């Protein structure tokens, strides 16, 4: 990921703003707009949703249930195993604990009905960032605009930016910040959240 980063293009589906993977940042810089989301062989949002019920916690490690293995292609299994391995390494290296019921990694800053700061929950696939106020959105965009702060953002974003070459870091954080502001401005009466998976693909949703 030091040379390339899977990003996305903008599209609206049922009130959800998603970043569908494309081959490189060049697609964004060339201002290409597609009417339909592109297909990704990576850790897509659809694959995460299909796999989540089959992920269990055993001895403070994520693993895919044996009974669920046959539900996925070899390529999908490869992506799932990669995601689980990275999450398990994070847990082991930082001596964290996985809640077997919620399958979230602790310690975490829990969601609150209103918070001037963004909060997050870490899952096996990546991190969900909650924005329950405009101030929380402003905090994230300010941190994304500052390289020093960006490296210290908790959860998946911090891990992603640490892997990026300097030439791609600014493009990635600028794009994420712009999309976050755009989605927030488009939903002035809603609280929102952003999912970022381990490949750096992000999507925005209304908090219900």
Structure commentary:
This protein is an alpha+beta fold and 208 residues long. The chain has seven helices and ten strands. The strands form three sheets. It has a six-stranded antiparallel sheet. A hairpin with a 4-residue loop joins strand 9 (192-197) and strand 10 (202-206). Helix 4 runs antiparallel to helix 7 (166-186). It is globular and about 45 Å long. The model is unreliable at 1-41 (pLDDT under 50).
Please, what is the average pLDDT? Answer: 79
Give the uncertain stretches in residue-range form: 1-41
Fraction of residues in helix: 25-40%
Strand content: 15-25%
Determine the N-to-C terminus distance. Answer: 33 Å
Number of helix segments?
7
The helix/strand order is EEHHEEHEEEEHHHHEE
Number of strand elements: 10
Structural class: alpha+beta
Across the major sheet, the strand order is 1-2-10-9-8-7
Shape assignment: globular
Please compute the radius of gyration using only Cα atoms: 17 Å
Major sheet characteristics? 6 strands, antiparallel
């Amino acid at each position: 990921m030091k040379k390339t980063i899977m990003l996305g293009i903008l599209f609206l589906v049922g009130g959800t703003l998603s970043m569908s993977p494309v081959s490189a940042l060049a697609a964004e810089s060339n201002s290409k707009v597609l009417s339909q989301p592109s297909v990704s062989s990576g850790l897509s949002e659809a694959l995460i949703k299909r796999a989540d019920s089959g992920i269990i916690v055993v001895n403070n490690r994520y693993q895919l249930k044996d009974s669920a293995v046959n539900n996925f292609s070899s390529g999908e299994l490869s992506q799932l195993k990669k995601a689980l391995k990275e999450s398990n390494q994070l847990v082991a290296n930082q001596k964290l604990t996985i809640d077997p019921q919620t399958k979230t990694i602790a310690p975490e800053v829990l969601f609150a009905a209103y918070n001037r700061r963004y909060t997050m929950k870490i899952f096996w696939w990546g991190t969900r960032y909650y924005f329950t106020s405009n101030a929380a959105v402003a905090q994230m965009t300010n941190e994304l605009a500052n390289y020093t702060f960006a490296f210290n953002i908790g959860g998946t974003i911090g891990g992603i930016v640490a892997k990026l070459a300097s030439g791609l870091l600014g493009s990635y954080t600028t794009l994420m910040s712009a999309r976050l502001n755009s989605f927030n401005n488009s939903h002035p009466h809603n609280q929102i959240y952003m999912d970022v998976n381990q490949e750096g693909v992000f999507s925005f949703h209304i908090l219900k």
